[in-house]
């Protein structure tokens, strides 16, 4: 199947690498015009250039209100509207409760919760005017089951679920759908930072006995972004090889 996003305009945050980059690539393969946003403008531009397909790369810190407003307005202007937003930007600052500092908690909550909310608010304004749109938020299985060492990240990712459902209820009658994806362990720079023992121990708990690939998350996001999921809103899709089911 191809062309599921033909003629659509999409914005993916945190897309210079990892899952976001795979989402951007998949969207372009399916005909979308894509804006890639990431903290560093040069990395975003390099990622866009590597994908081709007319992708734009833009520097944006998703925690900064004005930068997000400018990002959404710029994407809508460059690609004549905004049909799809993927809130993918994310960080981890793992530590046990005894060692986690307040700034580690705040940084993670700011990027995931405030960042997702700012882009959701700005994009939904454009989408409700057009009476169509799909927003996909990256949560995590840690937001469902909780991970030790991730009180900050698990709280933020659970918060994204509540935000997704509240926004889905507000926006459904405007033709805008809002859904979340909960990846399990996916092979990206974020998880490559884990110790080999922690990675292997996590992998051993996965019923499918392997980590997922970024493309496997991108395909789930594609489903939620496209008309294949035209009657799906407020849903949380687990893509975890069965882990945490
Ligand atoms: P990654 O670290 O490889 O990529 C994240 C990207 O987000 C980076 O390019 C980074 O520069 C960008 N970013 C960070 N802070 C930002 C900010 N303030 N503004 C804009 N961009 C920012 O991570 P990944 O593994 O590709 O994860 C992507 C998303 O999927 C994240 O939300 C993550 O929490 C979620 N997730 C990942 C996994 C996994 O196993 N990899 C599992 C569950 C959920």
Helix amount? 40-55%
- Residue-averaged pLDDT: 97
- CA radius of gyration is 17 Å
Q: Which CATH class is shown? A: Alpha Beta
Task: Report the sheet with the most strands, covering strand number, pairing sense and barrel closure.
Answer: 7 strands, parallel
**Structural class category:** alpha/beta
Q: Compute the number of helices.
A: 9
> What kind of oligomer do you see?
single chain
Dominant shape: globular
Q: Indicate the CATH architecture.
A: 3-Layer(aba) Sandwich
Strand order of the largest sheet: 3-2-1-4-5-6-7
Give the bound compounds: nicotinamide-adenine-dinucleotide
User: Which stretches are low in confidence, meaning pLDDT under 50 for 5 or more residues running?
Assistant: none
* Strand/helix succession: EHEHEHEHEHHEHHHE
CATH fold topology: Rossmann fold
Query: In the CATH hierarchy, what is the superfamily?
Result: NAD(P)-binding Rossmann-like Domain
Distance between the termini: 28 Å
* Estimated share of beta-strand residues: 15-25%
Q: What is the total number of structural domains?
A: 1
Describe, in plain words, how this protein is organized in 3D:
- This protein is of the alpha/beta class and 245 residues long.
- It has a single domain (9-239), classed as NAD(P)-binding Rossmann-like Domain (Rossmann fold), CATH 3.40.50.
- Helix content is 47%, strand content 15%.
- The protein is built from nine helices and seven strands; from the N terminus they run βαβαβαβαβααβαααβ.
- The chain has helices at residues 18-29, 41-51, 65-78, 102-130, 142-145, 151-171, 189-192, 196-204, 214-225, and strands spanning 9-13, 33-38, 56-59, 84-87, 133-138, 176-183, 236-239.
- It has a seven-stranded parallel beta sheet, sandwiched between helices.
- α1 crosses α9 (214-225) and α3 (65-78) runs parallel beside α4 (102-130).
- The longest helix is centred in the middle third of the chain and has 29 residues, at 102-130.
- The chain is globular, with a radius of gyration of 17 Å.
- The mean pLDDT is 97.
